[in-house]
Amino acid sequence: MIIDKLENASEYYSLGKDIERGLKYLQNTDLKSMPCQKHVIDGDVLWANIQQMPTKEPETTPWEIHKTYTDIQYVITGTERMDWANVEYFEGENDYDKQNDYQFGLVKPGGTQGSLIVNEGYFVIFTPFDAHKPALKVDKVQDIKKVIVKVKN
Fold it and tell me: Which residues of the chain have pLDDT under 50?
């Protein structure tokens, strides 16, 4: 898991050419004016999903994991909390959906985990080694606009 301001994105280009392309997409696109939908960048290798939604209650939101894609989650407007845990502490509540690359579940207590307050202009990279719970309220429910760039591993 990595968190940083978008202006520092070039520091993470060395993580791979598709991570670099995803970060450059965030840096070079007018995301505030983009419609909320899926935007294909390079077939199933690299694409972005722009969403606008109210933040959610942490207690009623499941943890999630992905096995095929790395997420680059960027907050366009608003502030959200994102919870993170090492995937070894994740326990699935349903079968892994290979076609849509997700599984929901819980995180066992006592594991390595934390909460991030992610402000507008910041991105977080979640790899398949990271269980995460995004779009959570900070103090109160608020509308956020964000983009999730999916990078095939």
Answer: none
